[in-house]
Amino acid sequence: MSENSMEWEGHCGHFIVISYLHKPSAPLSSLKWENEILPLSTASVNLINPHSKALLRVRERESGKKRKAESFIRVGNEMATRLPDDFKCPISLEIMSDPVILSSGHTFDRASIQRWLDSGHRTCPITKLPLPEHPCLIPNHALRSLISNYTRITPSKSQPCPQPQTLISALTSPSYPLGTKLDSLTHLARLTKHDSTLRRKLTESGAVPAVLKCVDSDDPSLQERALSLLLNLSLDDDNKVGLVAEGAINRVVKVLRAGSPDCRAIAATIITSLAVVEVNKATIGAYPDAIQALVRLLIAGKAREKKEAATALYAICSFADNRRRAIDCGAVPILIGLLASGLERSIEVLGLLVKCKEGREEMMKVNECVKVLVHVLRNGSLRGVQYGLFTLNCLCNYSESFCIEARNEGVLEICMGLVEEENEKIRRYTSSLVQTLRGNHAIG
Q1: Where is the signal peptide (predicted)?
Q2: 85-153 architecture in CATH?
Q3: Would you identify the CATH topology of the domain 333-444?
Q4: Any residues with CB less than 8 A from the CB of 216 and at least 6 apart, and which?
Q5: Which of 12, 30, 121, 376 could lock 388 by a disulfide, CB 3.0 to 4.6 Å apart?
């Protein structure tokens, strides 16, 4: 048998077994026999040049090695092109979409630092250095351009994802099964988490009604994923008013009343996000049962729900009319009780409610109010101490009996330990409270 000859090993029915010896001159590692079962209809084709067929197999193996090597290179490139930490906001830890510079020299995402300032802070979150009463936010155009260019050249780390419009269609069409809708929401939530441009495109392409329809679903999983996507869409200030106009508050309040624990927590977070825009604070507060639903969550919710509900109340109660609504819903004694149980976020809300007469009167009715506030001064965080001092000062200025009780609880001694505090607001509020306690500037 010659080097290129074929030997028939046998055949049966529509298949044959063939065997051949590789040509010694071929660039192979060794001589060996190859056996293969072939369909009879293709036997003539495969028998034409068995040596070429062997070479083809070698090429296929080499091609597989090449693809594997390319895969390793691609993974390496992806690791090398991950976004640098300097592109992330120090507050939100997310990629900045609108970087701005504080007078301290540090850069933050505009939405995050604005929330920080709106919360009453007048120090740099990083250096803790004092800021002007009305800090100037200077756009960091160079960094914004760098982030934009960098993300454009960064290769995708995931498998190709369906187009957003395809995913939206899966939500709106009744013909798609539940599993498809869940997958669509999951993809959209992942895509919109860090991509402000896509969030804007989704709202402009008609995604909101489809998402809100899923928020109305009786299926907890579908509702939770729809709420997660809605929260992402609410991150952009340009979307906040539009979401409210589309009817988002109505759906979110329904979830606050009757959703699962996780859904209620996300719903409260959406309220907080929407309330960043001033006009939305009035709209949310005026919506029937919105504030009442948050107060109920303070009573009946789990730890996460209570924290998110208190945060939402803080966000909307910076609008004066909402403070009275919260007080009318019985928020004051509930918040004091939660503060006594360790939910420090409550003191921030009380620090807003104490600004109106009705709030001070309600606090005066709670027997343990002074002791709870003193406990915050002794054991709270810097932010908690700041709001505790402010609340105590307002109450002591309002009531002589409250002022006397505060002195009896040792507030003056506590203040003496705070006058040298680095935090400018704490020093200022401490000085004011000391003057009130010593001079008894009660207004009755």
Answers
A1: none
A2: 2-Layer Sandwich (3.30)
A3: Leucine-rich Repeat Variant (1.25.10)
A4: 223, 251, 254
A5: 376
